[in-house]
Amino acid sequence: MRLNYIFELIKKQKTYNLLVLAFVIGFSVLCGFQITKLQFNYNFEDFFPNEDNELEVYNNFRKQFEYDNEFVLVALENKEGIFKKDFLEKINSLTIDFTRLRYVSKVVSPTNLKALSLGGLVPMQTKVLHYDDPELYKEDSARIYSSGELVGSFFPKNAKSVTIYIKTHDELSKKKCDSLAKNIEASIKKYNFDEIHFVGRIFAQDVYLQTLQSEFVYFLTIAFGLVMFFLWLSFRSVYGMIVPISICLISIFWTLGVMAMMGKSIDIMSVMLPTMIFIAGMSDVVHFFSKYFEELAKGTEKSLIFPLILKEVGFPTFLTLITTVVSFLSLLFSSITPIRDFGIYTSVGIIIAFILTYTLLPALLYFFTPKKLVSVHGHDNNTYKVMQTGLFWIFRNQKTIIGITVVLIVLSLFGLTKIKVNNLLLDDLSDGVKIKQDFNFFDKEYSGVRPLELEIKVKSDKTIWDRGIITQLNGLDEFIKKEYSAGFLYSPPQLVKSIYKAIDSEAKNGLPPEEDFNDIVKELKANKKNKDIKRIISPDLKSARVSAKIQDMGSMHVKAHNEHLKKYVSDNIDPKDLEVTITGAAHLVDLNNDYMVNNMMQGFGFSIFIIALLTYFLHRSWRMVLVFIVPNVIPLLIMAGVMGFAGIELKSATSLVFSIAFGVATDDTIHFISRLKIEMGYGKSLMYAFKRTYFETGKPILLTTFILMGGFISLMISDFQSTFYFGFLICITIIIAVIADIFLLPVLLFAILGGKKNTSE
User: Fold this and answer.
1) What's the pTM?
2) One domain, residues 340 and 489
């Protein structure tokens, strides 16, 4: 009778495991079809914040005027100097070529700056540069370099290059951007210039996407190789490598399939998603695998192993699942869609990996268990001897461990005070990437590329062309030039002054006399529907735009300049007449950085609160909450100290590390405390329970640490600086966290649980 029951049970187990395998294969095929639809995407504007109404202000602003980041700047060098006829003729020919390109609205270069057409950045009546008449070069040069408007815009101080400004159509699709970028480069290649530099969204976007695509493969390949290496060291078996790797790869495959089903694409955040799932999922597999073969090595019957794993490993890994998911879901505090999606889909992938660990992995082990893996997990190996010696050392040196911890905390707090919140527009790219080198060239030789945009609203019954209004705005222009060292300044007063100077070459840089001013304004009002005037002044004459290009000095310095600007406005602009608002794409990126840092700190607080609450309900002790939290907060504090001493700035990407690293770091603590509680539940003495916990969890903890390190180290090859620092900082946290769990956690637990120092047991 009992024999029939056993046969029936085995039959049911076999059927269940076959169904699991069939479902995994079927769903994997479905995901495979979906993944073919998955695309890579980098939309700069996805990272604009949607808080404090700033995005709405910017959208209304560019709808009224134009997009401030839809342009290309091309700088062309001539080592012998720019006032050479053959060089300037090539510049003029290239300018004509650019005007003929599709998706180009306007091209302004030194050779076509002229006339009262009200077009261009600096309208002129006569030619600025008589490129076809070398006899006038000396006179042109003197006029150009005495002009505050042209130097830093179209001409650098060293007179070794010139810039061509290309205004592209707004909201170009990726396909159109690629086409235009290709045609611009092809046009330039027809001419033999000494050096070529170009910047613009259409080029940066392509660089980001190409980097995303290559790094997506690199990260997974390197993480795959390193994890395979550590698995081989641990299990010394091809089976011991292939099965864990397969579980994680299927988890990644399914997650990408789910993303494709939901219409999501791979962006700068989700490119890290496979690595996150790979290393987080591997932790569960390793703990399951290690326990399974340890029990087999002890001679435990197969039928009893799985229930034992559920009790001794399943519950702790379920807790680590919760803490890790909570950490990633804390990213939902961000208002940035790619970051929120990264948190959501990484959580989905980690959950999938957990489910497969307790369904697919048992099914694979049911059908085949290599004997070699059983022998590897015997207790008569050097690992256990080392761990036993280490445990005894810890209990003999508790005061030393506490002292070292206190010193590290004090140093870290000092380093923490040195952290700066800052962000550069192309800070994500490494210095070896050409577009960043070109970006830096414009910062060094010209006024810069970063847009500075101000929205001006007339609040009184006056219009923008009232002389009193223009006078106030002219003062604002002069302040911006001085405060920001701005170039390519484009504003209503600048338009008036440029026209006046074109009419009267002897005129000074100030506003024209009232009679001339009225004549110019009359002409401008008559042409208010001119598309170039509409770029800076609304048809109702109640709104205007001040636009300039400045150096990308970092959000910290720009913020300081902006505060000076606000003070100037407060002291010199009549609030009854005008309202001045800073806006623009670059401004939103800076705000995004500030919001992200604040949101991530909120998310980090949320993670600690939820995990502390969970710990309390499990142990019914606030002292245990402290024991759990302290060893995992200290690594983050040390990481922050390293950031401060190393000069790593806090920005949107590096702020993500805190919540995620906390969730990753808690895994080992959970396994250690859970195992200790189980051993004590068996009625063992505290010291014996510690020894058993060290032996049972030590090796899996060390192995998962190496696996986590291997995965995150792969991120450090990235050309994206934020991704590099993400991997680097989490690696530091993981190392310190495992040291804290090995040395500090036992000391704290021993103190809380009231054990006696007895190393002889």
Assistant:
1) 0.74
2) no
